[in-house]
Amino acid sequence: MSTKLLNEGLEKGDLKRLIHTEMHIDEFKSKLGRDEDVVVLSFKVSAKEPGLDLVNFIEKGYNWVLDADVSSGEMDDGDYIVFVEGERDKDVAENIISMMKDIMNLTGQKLSDWRVRYQTSTTDHDLSIDSLNKLVPKTPDEYERKYGKKEIDDIKTASGIDVDTKAPKNDYTESLRIAAGIL
Predict the structure, then answer these.
(1) Is-contact 45 25, C-beta < 8 A?
(2) Domains of the chain listed by start with CATH number
(3) Which helix (H) or strand (E) holds 125?
(4) Smaller CB count within 10 Å for the chain: N or C?
(5) Element (H, E) at 44
């Protein structure tokens, strides 16, 4: 008797009550490229298995998605995080909305139920093309203009990541180094 692997696709309502209605964008660093080239979406799921199902669904369905993954361990609250990395381009807002509309078919939710936060902001925004177009830089140049080195260093500091940017050497910074006992 031979055994065959049964691969079932997700159907309408299969992820009902399993996905939280808050998406974070660019809160996490990209694994696959530079942050100015890759947009990183993240949201919580109630268990690892639905997260794996969702990752599989996303990876097979969207050409703009570079990678999707579920966190290896659970968060303090028992939930898992699904990460989606995609191309940062002029269509990023439309791509996100298109994917989320498909996910809404799996969850029974509505886009109007969802909230979005960008980077480390605690301000909630509607999940809509308009708000995504305002929040998410569409090109690497726009990302750099909006979130240049200074802001990236602030984000690294707030996240507990080592900052590798060096201060310029001048009389003022040298006096600060002396006062701090670094020299």
Answers:
(1) no
(2) 19-147 (3.30.1360), 148-183 (no CATH)
(3) strand 125-126
(4) N
(5) strand 38-45
